[in-house]
Amino acid sequence: MAPKRKNIESHLNEVAKPKRTKFTLDQTKFPRNTIKGVILVTGAGDVGQLGLGPDVLEKSRPALVNLTSEITDICAGGMHTACLTKDGKVLTFGCNDEGALGRITDGQEDAEFIPGEVALPGKVVQISTGDSHTVALLDDGRVFAWGTFRDSHGNMGMTVNGNEPLPYEIIKNQHIVKIASGADHIVFLTIQGEVWTCGCAEQGQLGRTSVRGSSRNARNGIDKGNIAKLVKPAPINVKLSLKLHFDNIWAGIYCTFVKVADGNDIYVFGLNNFNQIGLDIQAPEFFPKKSLEFSKYTWQVISSGQHHTIGLTNAGKVFTLGRKEYGRLGLGKDCEDAKVLTEVKGLSDKKVTNIACGSCTSFAVTEEGQLFGWGMGSNGQLGLGEEEDCFEPTLIQSKQLKDRKVIRVSSGGQHTVILCESDSNNKNGLTNGK
Description:
Elements: H1 5-16, E1 37-44, E2 58-64, E3 71-76, E4 80-85, E5 90-94, E6 116-118, E7 124-129, E8 133-138, E9 143-147, E10 150-151, E11 154-155, E12 164-171, E13 176-181, E14 185-190, E15 195-199, H2 224-231, E16 234-235, E17 246-251, E18 255-260, E19 266-270, E20 285-290, E21 299-304, E22 308-313, E23 318-322, E24 338-343, E25 352-357, E26 361-366, E27 371-375, E28 390-395, E29 405-411, E30 415-421
Antiparallel strand pairs: 1-2, 1-30, 3-4, 4-5, 5-6, 7-8, 8-9, 9-12, 10-11, 13-14, 14-15, 15-16, 17-18, 18-19, 19-20, 21-22, 22-23, 23-24, 25-26, 26-27, 27-28, 29-30
């Protein structure tokens, strides 16, 4: 008797399916910053994202945040800020309307304007923030998140049950070694070299859904089943036949970059309407695709704003591409949109150690600890003392930066956070001001 067709198909599928080779990432590849410092803030503070109290609603130059803990990492979200202390604790301040602070502030006067600790079940080694969410990676590989995701129809929730105002273990049964946040999506790198994503998929930033499966139809009759698939972490869609493993990840506001292990190849997915993810066609890419442009270099950091991207090579050089408006490319007032990676000449004589993008801003930290900024300055987020756009890298100077070496920078929607090495703790530092 001839075998049944379904058995033949099952056998063929088993034969055709390639097996993933065993792979484990070396966690030493992700060194954690051990330099303790103080934080400075600049820009809009109308919802408490500067952490300077209810009476300070904006700053045009960096101001010192009065903390009792020494800080090792910083993240500026859309309208909130998260800081990581030397003891592995997370402090947050800013807008908490959708739970982005991870702590209850209702009924507590000015609680959103003052840094407060998030209760977490272990030592945190990395943090990331989006428009309305915050994520914490613990030293044992667990990941907790809080807040919400949003899409073009409004609030998606962080789970099908809605917002998560307190830390929630968002991915289980996976040992995570690095996290990254876009505006409304999260990227996870597992110790096995796999990349998982969750959140909004409308611009292709999850790298695992088709155009049709990336959104919900309308505010009325929301497809909860589809939302459940999006907010639940799952692996990106990479052909098994390629047998790829990844050893680094970066998230832009609407896009994602992943690096192939033991090589320079960069795969990208997400919004590309100004070539900001290094693909020729100006259209969203919904599945991982190799970017020949980004694969030309070896990268320390890739940071992407709303419509532009800047990258820092291992050699300390800064490249940019994407939309030119507001000077965010740093290529001069008369430049055109950059369709290929272009070196920022204003920094070519310096060795850069850290970079960051805000929505329409760019920043670079040099080996000497100087901070340069360029792009939109309408809310003082460049820290230059004026609310003017800046078209080339400009040294940021202020009383608070004097004698302080900048280590890292992070820029959100309309505010910027700066981590500086300092001999004195924040509580012993200078008072807020220019």
